[in-house]
Every structure is written in structure tokens, then in C-alpha cells.
Amino acid sequence: MSSHAAEAVVPKNIRWILLGILLAMLLSMLDGLIVGTAMPTVVADIGGLDHISWVVTAYTLTTACSTPVWGKLGDLFNRKLTFLGSIVVFIVGSALSGQASSMGELIGFRALQGIGAGGMMAGAFAFIGVLLPPRERGKYQGMVAIVQTVGSIAGPLMGGFITTHLGWRWAFYVNIPIGLIAIVWCLLLLRVPPGRRGKVVIDWLGITLMTAMISALVMAATWAGSTFAWGSWQILGLGAAVVVLLSAFIAAERRAAEPLLPLRIFTGHRNFPMAAVLLTVAGVAMFGGTLYLPLYQQIVQGASAQNSGLLLVPMMAGSVAASMIAGKVMSKTGRYKIFPIVGSVSLAVGMGLLATMDAATSRVATSAFMVLVGIGTGFSIQMANTIAQNSVELRDMGAASAATSLFRTLGGSLGVAVFGSLFARATEGSQANGASQAARDAYLHAVAHGTQQIFLVGALCAAAAFFAAVFIQEVPLHRPPTGDQNTANESARAG
User: Fold this and answer.
1) Domain carrying residue 230
2) pLDDT for 103-117, tens place per residue?
3) 319/21 Cα distance (integer angstroms)
């Protein structure tokens, strides 16, 4: 079980400290969503329509690949400097993206942005694990949930506004002042325990194998059902590569002096792999909801595309409320197992109800179903993060936090791939601008049918999350240290 004896006393200004950390998290979330809204204008300006998907894929791929590396570097070296370094990389990538003159340049600079974003996300969750004992984290879950909600809703709205009034390049330039604020904020307020002393060995083989494995997995998830058929030799080859690289990675980690992802975080306690399942499923649900619910509401229910971000408010409101309730109860009682169980049930029911939607379903009914999905993700995501962090030792906090972010990202990538294939197959052959009302009705029915299939799969995934939640063992959450205050404070000041 985890050893948290070296945890520092919770600083009195912890909320102010977290604001700076969460600002960086918000930045990495906003960027992916802002860019999506700006892409039609980008293509009109610099061309490259055939490669437009890589603007998103490059960012997602490098974020996923770099997340575990940043997490491990934070464990080995000064966590604060590593975090600040990732923000600098993100700012540089943003500035270069705004200067791009071709689609190839933009894709390359977006990849650099993604490397920085991986460190920002990994660092943010690791700081929460280091600065706050598990029993205290519940009090601040609402802050994390609000940041994630703002990022999901504000991203498309900001993207449309910035592109219309300032130009698409400012969708990247806006990151520069926000990132600088986050750097100065953390320099002034953030204090964390120092990194390890003595000689440090970096697991270069593990980094190489992990990067190759994640790259193959993300590319397979991106291309399957769109660029290549699911049964094509390209996708099957990538799948085989993932299996081989994963086997080689596990073998390398067994022998590494300082493994990139220590296998002990997976084998030390059953709670970590169970939390990983919860986070993967939550990633599938969140990506599926944010991508296809607005599409359904716009095409079938006639909602305005201009305010697409606002269509997700019911789901996000349920998520924030559930996170805050779970956090308060967890901090007060130390009990938490009930929340992922209830969350997975709510998620399965909400997804199941969304799978019943057709062309006649009202917006009110859709909103009610979305609230259930939001409650499910709110009870699952933040609680799974706490459960995962409570099951590892403090020395592995960065690697464990990075792993949880990685599972959520990969769950989203796989979900998008599967959902995209289902939706494309359901709507194949239908036309939105058909010559008759019958053709229009057929298209609406096809979109509704595709949405039903997506959320039916989501409901089945949520059922898997329920079984994972049932097998979670409720281990007592650690409180803030009451003794040896001077030692803890000295460690905090050393950061």
C-alpha cells in the first residue's frame, strides 16, 4: 500500500496555488477544441484539406506519447521545473503554429504543442496528488470539474469568436499570454518537495517502446473505419504492432532500473487497474458525448451550430454537481467506493436512454438523458483519479498520474474511432440535401440510427466499468499529517 509519510502539510493558500496549476490544464484542453472550430478558415487560407485530420491527430498523438514521459521526469527531477518546462514548450508550439504558412508546418507545430500539453496534464494531476492527501482532495474536486467543464464548453465558443473577429492565427496566439500568466503564478506560489537525490537513470528503451506502441494504437484508432477498413492489412498490421510493442515494453520495464511506468503501480494493488478501466470508459463516454450529441442535436433536432458548446451544458452541469457532492462526502467520511458504482450505473442508464433517441425525441428528453451521463462521469472520473493515486507510493505519483491521463486519452481515441465507424456506416448513402422531403427524412433517420448505435456501445462499456467499480477495495484515505509539521513544511519549501 502507498506510503504518504512524506506528504507536505496542505498550504493555507492551496486554492490560489491550484488556480495556477488548473490554468495550465485548461489551456491544454481549450486548444484542441478551439482549433476544431477554426479549421475551415485555416484550410481556406493555407490549403491542405487532404491532411486536415492530422492537425488534430498530431496533437493527440504527441500528447498521449509524451504524458508518461513527463510524469516520470517529474518523479525523477524537480517536479515544478518539469511542469514549467512543459508550459514553455506549449507556448513555443503555439507561437509557431500561429506563424504556420502551410498545412505541413501547422501539423508539425501542433505536434510540438501536444508534447507540451502532455506535460501540463500529467503535471497538474501529479501536483494534486502531491500537495493534497487523498482525504483532502475531495474538497477541491469541484475546481477540477469546473475547469474541465469550462474547457469543454468555452472551447468551441472561443474558437468561433476568435476566428471571426481576430483571425484563425489568434486561436494559437491566445495561448501565449495565458501560458505566461500560469508560469508566473506557479513561480510565485507553487512549492513542492524536491526530486530525488543522486544519479538518475532514464529509461530510454521504455520511452522508445511506449512511444511506438501509443503511436501505432492512436493511428489505428484514427484511421480505422475512415482512411482504411477495420479488416484492412494496414489496421491489422498496426494492431499486431501494438501487441508486439506492448509485450516488449513490459519485458523492458521488468529489467529497467528506473522504469518509465513502474509495473508495481499496476500490480501493487488491484485498485489501480480497476481505476484505469473506469477512466478508459469515462474517456469513451466523454468523447462520444461531446462529439456526437451536438451533431445529433443540430441535424435531427434543429439546434443552432453557432452555440454548439452550450448544447453540452446539461451533461457538464451534472458532471460538476456530481464531482462536488462526491468530493465533499469523501472528505467528510473517507468513504468513496459507492460513487464509482453509482456513477457507472448512471452512465450506463444515461447512455442506454440516449440510444433510444430518434427523430421525434424532444430536446428536453435529450437534456435529461445527458444529465445522467454527466452524473456518471462526475462520480467516476475524479474519484477514479483519487483511487489510483491512493494506491501508489509518493515516489510514483507522477508516473501514476500520467498513466491515468493516458488511459483517459486512449479511451477517448478508441471511442472516437469506433463511434466514427458506426456513424459512417449508418449514414452511408443518405443525403442531407436530397431532392424531396422523403430523402430528408431518410437522412434524419440515418443520423438518429447512427447515434443510437454509438450510445448503445457506450452503455455496454459503462457496464464493464460497473464490474470494475465493484471490485475496487475501499482503502482508508490518508488525512493531512498531524505530526512532524516542521519536516513537512521544510520539504514543501525546498521546491
Assistant:
1) 204-256
2) 899 999 999 999 999
3) 21
